[in-house]
């Protein structure tokens, strides 16, 4: 009995190398887009790249490269006019007399050569079957709705820009109610300007209760529905975020560490190693969209809470940054930020810059931080030594090596220990119910009782001590 594995749909990447972008950065951007598209469930079969001073206003690429792209997708390579062509007998007669050479003459010579070189069209494969064509074109830029439509007309394939790819991945990976609401709002904001009229949908129709407004077209009706839906989602999200704020308020004063960094840098692997929790670990982009909070394991007193946050990426859509503001508040309210970078990635310095830029946007740049260069097990000793010289304050480690994780745990504990002070608390017999609160927020060094109550020698953070004294004084 033979089993056939379902074939993944195919995609083509499109990138324009703009002035100021060197070859290395351009290649890294396209490689990252390829990983995003693969995470979305497509196999990348080709990349079409072009150097230009700006994106072509009509369809991103020049005519020659557009033809080359169309050979991969089975399209015409020509952007048809949106208006119906008027019948003109004189024009038709002149076209017949001039022959068919005009179309070829429109293409620049260099572009035609490029298209012929890479010809990955409908040539048969080794089994004699017609080669599969790409059904999706992923563009490594934010493009306008009209550019996307023109590309779709020229290629016959679905077109997604970088923002669209990221939003779709977020949509598929969201698990919690909060994440689903945030992503849906961002997705609707992305879709609204890209709606288009279909068929005879432009006709104006009369209004009615619950129906279209006076003179409202089908397109306008769809956009109004989207606006109404976004308003509903925002209202529901507001309620969910109030609950999250309440939970965070309950953790106020507790010692908190937030793992932040580029997507797929290994934050969730470190989270699992530090806390012993079964958080999702996957070698794909944006596997984690929901903030997870767990206690450092083995536990210490007072407890140290570790949170795993959503990863960052270059050119992260603004709507997603805004939507995930509440999720990123976990970083803003942390006592310590651990910047996690994949040291085995040649572009990790740029990735680290992206992380710091986004956190600066939300005002978290002033939070004390430490740099963790993760995945050093993939590097040679010479490469590790070079990193130590370049980043003397960083911690080099691998989440897969228990000794490295143990060392990080001790460093986290030491960070909080340096700000703790010793004090004595008097716990009256009438307030014995607060003993659990004291043990939760301080380390009790000794405990003695006399006629006035319990005298506890404790070590705690000054803010926690002030809160405990306030509770005892009530």
Automatic annotation (TrEMBL):
Q: Where is the composition biased (Acidic residues)?
A: 99-119
Q: Which HAMAP family match?
A: GTPase_HflX (MF_00900)
Q: What is this protein called?
A: GTPase HflX
Q: Which residues bind GTP?
A: 261-268, 286-290, 308-311, 374-377, 398-400
- Cofactor(s) listed: Mg(2+)
Alphabetized, the UniProt keywords read: Coiled coil, Cytoplasm, GTP-binding, Magnesium, Metal-binding, Nucleotide-binding
CC terms in the record's Gene Ontology section: cytoplasm
Q: One GO MF term, please?
A: ribosome binding
Instruction: Tell me which residues make up the Hflx-type G domain.
Output: 255-420
Q: Which family does it belong to?
A: Belongs to the TRAFAC class OBG-HflX-like GTPase superfamily. HflX GTPase family.
Q: Where in the cell is it found?
A: Cytoplasm
Under the subunit heading, UniProt states: Monomer. Associates with the 50S ribosomal subunit.
InterPro entries the record matches? G_HFLX_dom (IPR030394), GTP-bd (IPR006073), GTP-bd_M (IPR032305), GTPase_HflX (IPR016496), GTPase_HflX_N (IPR025121), GTPase_HflX_N_sf (IPR042108), P-loop_NTPase (IPR027417)
Note the coiled coil stretches, chain numbering.
Answer: 216-243
Protein role: GTPase that associates with the 50S ribosomal subunit and may have a role during protein synthesis or ribosome biogenesis.
Task: List every stretch annotated Disordered.
Answer: 74-132
Protein residues bound to Mg(2+): 268, 288
State one Pfam family annotation: GTP-bdg_N
Task: List, alphabetically, the PANTHER family matched.
Answer: GTP-BINDING PROTEIN 6-RELATED, GTP-BINDING PROTEIN HFLX
Sequence intervals crossing the membrane: none
């Amino acid at each position: 009995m033979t089993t056939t594995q379902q074939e993944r749909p195919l995609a083509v990447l499109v990138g324009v190398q703009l002035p100021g972008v060197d070859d290395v950065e351009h290649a890294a951007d396209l490689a990252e887009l390829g990983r995003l598209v693969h995470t979305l469930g497509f196999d990348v079969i080709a990349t079409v790249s072009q150097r230009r001073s700006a994106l072509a206003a009509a369809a991103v690429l020049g005519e020659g490269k557009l033809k080359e792209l169309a050979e991969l997708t089975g399209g015409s390579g020509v952007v048809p006019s949106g208006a119906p062509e008027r019948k003109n007998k004189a024009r038709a007669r002149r076209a017949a007399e001039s022959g068919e050479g005009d179309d070829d003459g429109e293409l620049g010579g260099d572009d035609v050569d490029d298209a012929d070189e890479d010809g990955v069209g409908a040539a048969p494969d080794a089994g004699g079957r017609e080669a599969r064509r790409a059904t999706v074109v992923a563009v490594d830029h934010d493009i306008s709705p009209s550019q996307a439509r023109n590309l779709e007309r020229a290629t016959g394939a679905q077109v997604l820009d970088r923002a669209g790819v990221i939003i779709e991945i977020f949509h598929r990976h969201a698990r919690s109610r909060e994440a689903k609401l945030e992503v849906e709002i961002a997705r609707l904001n992305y879709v609204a300007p890209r709606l288009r009229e279909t068929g005879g949908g432009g006709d104006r129709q009369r209004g009615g209760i619950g129906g279209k407004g006076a003179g409202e077209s089908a397109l306008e009706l769809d956009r109004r529905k989207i606006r109404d839906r976004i308003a509903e989602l925002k209202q529901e999200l507001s309620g969910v975020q109030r609950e999250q704020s309440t939970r965070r308020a309950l953790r106020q004063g507790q010692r908190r560490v937030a793992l932040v960094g580029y997507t797929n840098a290994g934050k969730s692997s470190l989270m699992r190693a530090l806390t012993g929790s079964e958080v999702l670990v996957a070698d794909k982009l944006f596997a984690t969209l929901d903030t997870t909070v767990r206690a450092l394991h083995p536990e210490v007193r007072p407890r140290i809470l570790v949170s795993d946050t959503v990863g960052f990426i270059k050119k992260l859509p603004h709507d997603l940054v805004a939507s995930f503001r509440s999720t990123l508040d976990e970083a803003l309210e942390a006592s310590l930020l651990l910047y996690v970078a994949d040291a085995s990635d040649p572009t990790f310095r740029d990735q680290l810059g992206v992380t710091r830029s986004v956190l600066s946007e939300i005002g978290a740049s002033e939070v004390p931080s430490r740099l963790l260069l993760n995945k050093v097990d993939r590097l040679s000793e010479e490469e590790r030594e070079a990193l130590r010289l370049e980043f003397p304050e960083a911690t080099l480690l691998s989440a897969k090596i228990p000794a490295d994780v143990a060392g990080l745990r001790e460093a986290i504990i030491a960070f909080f220990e340096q700000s703790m002070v010793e004090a004595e608390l008097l716990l009256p017999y009438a307030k014995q119910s607060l003993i659990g609160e004291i043990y939760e927020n301080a380390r009790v060094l000794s405990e003695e009782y006399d006629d006035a109550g319990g005298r506890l020698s404790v070590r705690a953070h000054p803010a926690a001590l002030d809160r405990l004294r306030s509770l005892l004084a009530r």
